[in-house]
Design a protein that fits this description.
By secondary structure, the chain is mostly helical. It has one domain. It has three helices and no strands. It is elongated, with a radius of gyration of 14 Å. The chain starts with a helix and ends with a helix.
């Protein structure tokens, strides 16, 4: 997703998503031994907020 977004806006290249995809898969298919720690969940939530902010700014700039 970020690769596609980066083609439109270079600011997306600056986002460090770490292992967000692995985290999302674990959330969809949880097991007792794969439950995320609270710190990890907060960290990935912050990453998603950063991405959302960039997307919203891009949408707003396209409307002008």
């Amino acid at each position: 997703m970020l690769k596609s977004c980066s083609a439109i806006n270079d600011r997306f290249k600056e986002v460090d998503v770490k292992n967000l995809e692995d985290f999302a898969v674990r959330g969809r298919y949880p097991h007792d031994f794969l439950l995320p720690l609270m710190d990890e969940a907060v960290e990935f939530y912050q990453i998603t907020l950063e991405i959302k902010e960039l997307v919203m700014k891009e949408i707003q700039s396209q409307r002008k």
